[in-house]
Design goal:
The chain has 432 residues and is α+β, with helices and mostly antiparallel strands. The strands form six sheets. It has a seven-stranded antiparallel β-sheet with strand order 3-4-13-14-15-11-18. It has a three-stranded mixed β-sheet with strand order 2-17-16. The chain has a three-stranded antiparallel β-sheet with strand order 7-8-9. α3 packs across α11.
């Protein structure tokens, strides 16, 4: 959209077609995996059809905070104008970008938007209102060809579903943007292997590293409260939401500077549970219960990564192996935050908390939020792209999507990856 507004011509290559195809999906997403998420997990969140993973997005939406961006080469203020634009495109009102309210000592209430998800394949604008943009369905960028000296991409190879491969030489001033998701962006770079030297963009062995998810701990605790625990009122135009508690900045530092959220799901008091029955009698009609679902931040670790594996997809892109282990810091952050919440509830007389150790330690799952693998940073020694999403050392090669995330916070990545994409579109559109 932003490129179109600047009158820049662009062509969008999409492996799949307008409708989802099991045949295309299975052929182009087969991979292997070790750790907390096996090889069958990642393809569920790497949709090879027009609109990509917007087809399976649940609609949850939140922005990263300033503290979540502390290890990025950009700040929240750099993203703010693009957050506002992305929120509008997703049919969300602006209050969810900034609204928060104290709910108890050390705790902040920050609801998350859950309005209807946007399905990009259904957007008529893609087909009718972007005259500068062409869409080529059934095509895959299968290889990047670089000039000697590795300063510029000189050509790309395009695979068509019919089986043909065509090399396209780039003209002066043309740029390539990889927007193939947290798995696909790394796959294209790692598969683009010149005769001499490492793969394109992988001169410092950083492509594929820092693979992250958002560990989910569903049903990790049950909260019993009284009227002293009140969920704050939201702005009247906030829209559909879920109630979320997060640590304030001081508590965030105390629990190890890894972010976590607790979703409050209204529940019933259990009459035959002696503890719940006790507080039900003590507090009467003011007694309420919530099941807590935690969503945590993973520490970015270089050894959590994508690596080349045996075999290739129909476009000759190498198959991948994902290695992703959730570190102790994620488990400890959830455990410590719940313990702190319990202490605050007891001290204030506003509630009690029962932690479910089994669900915390052994029930971890994920949200389908694939982040990292082409990390943003200042140094080529520890990242793949710079603050403008340009691959280090290359003049005309860029990356869009959550693969550039340096850290993950706990919020769903959709809003942030869209804001980054528009920011990149503005940069490329403004370039002469």
């Amino acid at each position: 959209r932003r490129l179109n507004e600047h009158g820049k011509n662009a062509i969008l290559l999409e492996t799949g077609e307008a409708g989802y195809s099991d045949t295309v999906q299975s052929a182009f997403t087969e991979m292997y995996g070790r750790g907390h998420y096996d090889g069958s997990y990642w393809p569920l969140h790497w949709v090879r059809a027009m609109g990509g993973t917007s087809a399976v997005w649940a609609g949850w939406c939140g922005a990263l905070s300033e503290r979540n961006l502390r290890n990025w080469p950009i700040t929240r203020s750099d993203l703010d104008p693009f957050y506002k634009s992305a929120a509008g495109y997703l049919r969300r009102t602006e209050p969810f970008l900034t609204f928060s309210s104290a709910i108890a000592q050390g705790l902040t209430y920050r609801p998350m938007s859950t309005e209807e998800p946007l399905r990009l394949v259904q957007e008529p604008e893609l087909y009718d209102a972007l005259p500068s943009v062409d869409i080529a369905l059934g095509t895959t960028l299968s290889e990047l060809h670089v000039k000697e000296g590795r300063r510029e991409v000189e050509a790309i190879s395009i695979y068509s579903l019919g089986g043909s491969v065509k090399r396209i030489d780039l003209r002066q001033g043309q740029a390539v943007v990889l927007a193939a998701g947290g798995i696909g962006n790394a796959q294209i770079l790692l598969s683009s292997q010149p005769e001499n030297g490492p793969a394109v963009g992988n001169e410092n062995d950083q492509v594929g590293r820092y693979l992250m998810e958002h560990p989910h701990f569903i049903g990790c605790a049950k909260l019993i409260t009284n009227d002293a625990f009140q969920i704050p009122s939201r702005p009247p135009d906030f829209g559909e939401h879920v109630d979320i508690i997060e640590p304030d900045d001081e508590t965030y530092r105390r629990i190890g500077e890894r972010d976590v959220s607790l979703e409050l799901v209204p529940a019933n008091l259990t009459a035959d549970d002696p503890v719940e029955a006790l507080f039900s009698r003590k507090w009467g009609d003011s007694a309420k219960a919530y099941i807590l679902n935690a969503r945590a931040e993973m520490e970015p670790e270089a050894e959590n990564r994508l690596k080349l594996a045996e075999g290739a997809d129909p476009a000759s892109l190498k198959r991948l192996r994902a290695i992703c282990h959730i570190g102790t810091s994620s488990f400890r952050t959830v455990d410590t935050f719940l313990e702190l919440l319990s202490d605050r509830l007891i001290a204030s007389g506003s509630g009690r908390l029962r932690m479910a150790n089994k669900e915390i330690m052994f029930g971890v799952s994920g949200g389908g939020h694939i982040m990292g693998t082409t990390r943003m940073g200042v140094s080529p020694r520890t990242s793949v792209v710079d603050a403008d999403c340009k691959v280090h050392g290359y003049q005309n090669l860029f990356v869009a999507g959550s693969s550039v995330f340096a850290t993950g916070g706990y919020a769903n990545p959709t809003l942030t990856l869209m804001a980054l994409a528009e920011r990149l579109g503005e940069k490329l559109g403004a370039d002469k």
